[in-house]
């Protein structure tokens, strides 16, 4: 799909990292997967450098999508809940868009793990370690790539721990120093909450008392508000996003971009938001 850009964007360069719980057609089509799929292509066609990351959920057909392991990125171990878990990175291509999508994988968390929800739509307890692994694993893989993004645009609840790990990693290493973040809000939600043990697991991974105050009684709304708190910009990417979350973002004086059904105009405005947040750095 080619886009007709409706107005000139200044010297559109810069490095943008997209992190999403899904990317069409690798995952089923929803607000997050379609936005990441088409926005990343649009942004690349402006001349920016793009990397896209998502989880390798159990229902993604590796043979159909011709996924293969990236040996130079795989193999490191991440500690979650005081246990080592191997980080495996795979990659697949979208030939029509000349885009590569990187997949965060682990046998226990993704290859053998089924749905995120039970038969009644409630969040399964094991998802706490899965989103911790995905959030940290993505950023560690980007560091190993030695590819410093000017901005990270993350979408969907499963990417909700990315800003936590961005802060945590920056305390130990300046690799992401200056990196700005944008979070896409969608109308998707889930029932139930993460288990209370998640606080202990986050503390073991460097969470401060200030961090943990944002993640108490962690349900969908709490997770979204924590992500908003740590993000620099918010994109309303669905027409029916919870109004409480939109109000929360505006009360916290975040740059909020309202939903626009015109895809080309919407994506152009998102890229202007990138420039607003990153300033001259994104155009050098």
For the report, how would you describe the main beta sheet? 9 strands, mixed
Alpha-beta content class:
alpha/beta
* CATH class (first level) name: Alpha Beta
CATH superfamily membership: Glycogen Phosphorylase B
What is the CATH topology? Answer: Rossmann fold
Helix content: 25-40%
Question: What is the mean pLDDT?
Answer: 88
Report the portion of residues in β strands.
15-25%
Taking strands numbered 1, 2, ... along the chain, how are they ordered across the largest sheet?
Answer: 3-6-7-2-1-8-9-10-11
The end-to-end distance, rounded to whole angstroms, is 27 Å
Give me the count of strands: 11
Shape: globular
Gyration radius over CA: 18 Å
Counted by DSSP, the helix tally is 10
Order of helices and strands: EHEHEEEEEHHEHEHHHEHEH
* Poorly predicted spans: 5-11
Return the CATH architecture: 3-Layer(aba) Sandwich
- Overall number of domains: 1
Protein described:
The chain is of the alpha/beta class and about 280 residues long. It has one domain (about 15-284): 3-Layer(aba) Sandwich (Rossmann fold), CATH 3.40.50.2000. The chain contains 10 helices and 11 strands. It has helices at about 30-45, 60-65, 105-110, 125-145, 160-170, 200-205, 210-215, 220-230, 245-250, 265-280; strands at about 15-20, 50-55, 70, 75-80, 85, 90-95, 100-105, 150-155, 180-185, 235, 255. A 9-stranded mixed sheet has the order 3-6-7-2-1-8-9-10-11, sandwiched between helices. A two-stranded antiparallel ribbon has the order 4-5. Helix 4 (about 125-145) packs across helix 5. The longest helix has 19 residues, at about 125-145. It is globular, with a radius of gyration of 18 Å.
């Amino acid at each position: 799909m080619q886009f007709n850009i409706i107005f000139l964007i200044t010297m559109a360069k810069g490095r943008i990292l997209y992190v999403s719980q899904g990317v069409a057609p690798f995952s089923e089509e929803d607000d997050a997967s379609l936005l990441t799929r088409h926005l990343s292509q649009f942004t690349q066609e402006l001349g920016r450098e793009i990397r896209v990351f998502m989880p390798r959920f159990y229902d993604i057909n590796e043979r159909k999508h011709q996924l293969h392991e990236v040996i130079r990125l795989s193999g490191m171990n991440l500690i979650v809940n005081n246990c080592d878990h191997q980080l495996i990175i795979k990659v697949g291509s979208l030939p029509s868009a000349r885009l590569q999508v990187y997949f965060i994988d682990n046998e226990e968390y993704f290859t053998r793990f089924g749905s995120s929800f039970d038969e009644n739509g409630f969040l399964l307890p094991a998802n706490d370690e899965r989103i911790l692994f995905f959030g940290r694993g993505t950023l560690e893989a980007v560091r190993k790539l030695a590819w410093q993004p000017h901005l990270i645009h993350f979408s969907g609840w499963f990417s909700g721990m990315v800003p936590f790990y961005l802060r945590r990693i920056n305390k130990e290493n300046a690799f992401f120093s200056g990196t700005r973040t944008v979070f896409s809000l969608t109308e998707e939600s889930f029932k139930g909450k993460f288990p209370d043990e998640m606080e202990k697991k986050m503390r073991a991974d460097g969470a401060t008392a200030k961090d943990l105050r944002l993640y108490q009684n962690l349900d969908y709304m709490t997770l979204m508000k924590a992500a908003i708190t740590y993000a620099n910009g918010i994109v309303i990417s669905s027409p029916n996003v919870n109004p409480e979350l939109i109000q929360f973002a505006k009360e916290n004086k975040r740059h909020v971009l309202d939903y626009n059904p015109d895809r080309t105009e919407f994506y152009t405005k998102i890229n202007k938001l990138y420039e607003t947040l990153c300033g001259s750095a994104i155009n050098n």
